[in-house]
Design a protein that fits this description.
Order of helices and strands: HHHHHHHHHHHH
Length: about 260
C-alpha cells in the first residue's frame, strides 16, 4: 500500500521535471497540474458512484417522510370549511345568485306542472292562426289537383250555379192564366200533360239563357243541350201529332188551345 502511494506521487513529479528540463530557458512558463488525491479505501469509480446514488436515495426518502409527517400534523378540514374556502376563491355576485334562484324555480315549476299546463304554456308564445290561414295551411299539405280534376270541379260548380239560378215566373202572366182557367172548362189529362210539357220546355229555355257561361267542350255542349230538351214518350209524341193534325183542320178552338197558341 505504501509503495503504490509513493509511485503515485513520484510519477507526476518526474513528468513535470522532464518537461521543465526540455523547455528552453527563454520561455519560462508556469503550469498548474491537478493534484490527484488517491482513495485510501481502494474503491473503484463505479463503487463510489453507486455509493453516492444510494446516499441520494436515502436523502430523498428522508425528505418524503418529513413532508408526510408535516402533512399529517395539519388539522383536517371539514366539508363546511372546504365549501367556505371555495366560496372565498370564487365569489358569487348578487346577479348570479338571482339567476340561479330563477333557474331553480323554473325547474321546480316544470317538474310539478302537468302535461296540459305545459301544452298551454307552449301555446301562449305561438301566434293564433285565423280561419283563412288554417285553410291555406291545410291546402298546402294536400296534393295538388291535376288538370282533369280542375276541369271536373269547374263543371260541377257551373252545374251547381245553374241549378241555383231559378227562373222567376212572371206573376202577372200566371194571374192572367188562372183567370182564364176560371172561365174555361177543366182540362183533360191530355191537355194537362201537354201544358206541363210546354211549361217545362219554356223553363228549360229560360234556364239556358240565365245559366252562366262556362268553358265547355263540344261533347259537353251536346250533352248539355240534350239534357235541357224534354224527353217525350211515344204516347206524348202520338198525342202531339194528333193535335198538330187537328190544328191544321178548321175547328173551334178551346180556351186552352187559344192560350197555348198565344204562348207559342
Amino acid at each position: 500500500m505504501n509503495q503504490n502511494h509513493v509511485s503515485g506521487l513520484m510519477f507526476p513529479a518526474v513528468a513535470g521535471l522532464f518537461f521543465f528540463l526540455k523547455k528552453p530557458k527563454a520561455e519560462e512558463t508556469h503550469l498548474a497540474y491537478p493534484v490527484f488525491t488517491p482513495d485510501l479505501s481502494g474503491a473503484t469509480g463505479v463503487a463510489r458512484y453507486l455509493e453516492k446514488q444510494e446516499q441520494l436515495l436515502q436523502l430523498k426518502s428522508a425528505e418524503a417522510v418529513v413532508a408526510a409527517q408535516a402533512e399529517e400534523a395539519k388539522p383536517m378540514q371539514t366539508g363546511v370549511a372546504k365549501y367556505l374556502e371555495q366560496q372565498e376563491q370564487h365569489k358569487v355576485t348578487g346577479v348570479t345568485r338571482y339567476t340561479r334562484r330563477l333557474a331553480l324555480t323554473e325547474k321546480q315549476v316544470k317538474a310539478s306542472s302537468t302535461g296540459v299546463e305545459r301544452y298551454l304554456s307552449n301555446q301562449k308564445g305561438k301566434p293564433e292562426l285565423t280561419g283563412v290561414a288554417k285553410y291555406l295551411k291545410k291546402q298546402e299539405g294536400l296534393p295538388k289537383p291535376s288538370k282533369v280534376s280542375k276541369y271536373l270541379t269547374k263543371q260541377h260548380l257551373a252545374e251547381k250555379q245553374a241549378k241555383q239560378a231559378q227562373v222567376v215566373v212572371n206573376e202577372s202572366s200566371v194571374t192572367k192564366y188562372l183567370k182564364n182557367q176560371e172561365n174555361t172548362p177543366p182540362l183533360s189529362k191530355v191537355g194537362k200533360y201537354l201544358l206541363r210539357q210546354d211549361l217545362l220546355a219554356r223553363q228549360a229555355q229560360k234556364e239556358k239563357q240565365v245559366a252562366p257561361k262556362s268553358e265547355l267542350t263540344g261533347v259537353a255542349k251536346y250533352l248539355k243541350s240534350k239534357e235541357s230538351e224534354p224527353q217525350l214518350s211515344r204516347v206524348a209524341k202520338y198525342v202531339a201529332r194528333q193535335t198538330l193534325m187537328a190544328k191544321q183542320q178548321p175547328s173551334s178552338e178551346t180556351g186552352v188551345e187559344k192560350y197555348m197558341r198565344q204562348q207559342a
